[in-house]
Write a structure and sequence with these properties.
The protein is of the alpha+beta class and about 325 residues long. The chain is built from nine helices and eleven strands. The protein folds into two domains: about 180 residues, no CATH class; about 110 residues. The strands form three sheets. It has a six-stranded antiparallel beta sheet, covered by helices on one side. A three-stranded mixed beta sheet has the order 9-11-10, covered by helices on one side. A two-stranded antiparallel sheet has the order 2-5. The relative contact order is 0.12.
Length: about 325
């Protein structure tokens, strides 16, 4: 289950100490992998915090945003986990020697991305609710997408997968495949947010341009309407510019996964998931909307600049007229 909550909520999201102590910081893209198998264990809060995590064991909880300050772990080695001969939940993927933690790729765990998306793996609704209970999010920002991943149990020397309707089967899971899957799922649900933001800003743009449709910049009442919307114009420019920057720099939809760069065997999974969620086509549609927002922003700024220049010209003419009248009055004999 993938959720988009907004990056601003992470500072208020308090993670219990016995959970945050096991957080792993991943790089490219910046994300956190947090095992949740100890969430319901009563005695897990008393576990000692490994020194490598950098989280103080005395703290009752830690904000999710603070965990992004942890040093990132190296890219994990390729670890295949076939599930034919043993229970999937009992299998553990190896981590780099520098880490004292073990990671169970079959969950339950969550992966949080710095741009405000969270992906839960093999996590019950009750466990997700418990983790999200103290996150204050506006209803409009509570976007989520459910996608089922099933371990097929097939024995294979190479990673294999198959897409079904709203689900996929995989021959095994390791830390690298989890990073790819969680990244694509988080990008897909975050795209819903930015698509909604683009539609909202386009409606706002239409409202701001409407007074200028008939009669152009000199339409009756248009100047007053624009004057009343001066603060709205500033807000619109800031919002549209921020949306364009976030899509390109935060989501990194155009960037190739570092896992794919390092291990070509993961490329079919990365390409297949992007195609499954139509990320390429959706990004092109979003880019078209962002281009419209940019063009609309330029038009509004041009109109505002034209009106400001027009007002200055009127003021100058009035001042010159006053000066001429005063000069004439000065030459009229008393």
């Amino acid at each position: 289950m993938a959720h988009y909550l907004g990056a601003e909520t992470f500072s208020a999201w308090q993670i219990p100490a016995h959970i945050s102590a096991r957080a792993l910081r991943l790089a490219q893209p910046h994300s956190l992998l947090i095992p949740l198998d100890g969430l319901a264990a009563a005695g897990s809060a008393a576990q000692a915090t490994p020194a490598s995590t950098g989280v103080a064991s005395s703290a009752a909880s830690t904000s999710l945003s603070a965990l992004f300050d942890l040093p990132p772990i190296p890219v994990a080695p390729i670890v295949r986990i076939p599930s034919a001969s043993s229970t999937p939940t009992s299998q553990t993927a190896a981590l780099p020697a520098s880490s004292s933690l073990a990671f169970d790729p079959t969950g339950p765990f969550m992966v949080a991305f710095q741009y405000g998306a969270v992906v839960f793996f093999n996590t019950s609704e009750a466990m997700q609710h418990e983790m999200l209970a103290n996150v204050a999010v506006k209803d409009a920002a509570k976007l989520k997408d459910d996608y089922k991943i099933v371990l097929s149990g097939e024995r294979s020397d190479s990673f294999s997968f198959r897409f079904l309707t709203d689900s996929m089967t995989v021959s095994g899971m390791d830390l690298n495949s989890v990073r790819i899957i969680s990244q694509i799922l988080s990008q897909a649900v975050a795209m819903q947010h930015y698509e909604g933001e683009a539609n909202r800003l386009l409606l706002k743009l239409k409202t701001m341009l409407k007074p200028n449709v008939k009669g152009g910049a000199n339409a009756p009442g248009a100047s007053g309407a624009m004057g009343a919307q001066r603060s709205s114009l500033v807000n619109y420019v800031a919002e549209s510019s921020t949306a364009m920057v976030d899509v390109l720099t935060e989501l990194k939809l155009l960037d190739r996964s570092e896992i794919v760069w390092g291990h070509g065997s993961y490329e079919p999974l990365w390409v297949g998931l992007r195609r499954e969620f139509d990320l390429g086509d959706r990004f092109e549609n979003l880019q078209t909307k962002l281009d419209l927002l940019r063009d609309g922003r330029d038009v509004l700024l041009s109109i505002d600049q034209h009106r400001s220049s027009h007002r200055m010209e009127v003021v100058i003419i009035v001042l010159i007229s006053i000066e001429v009248v005063l000069g004439l009055l000065h030459h009229i004999p008393h």
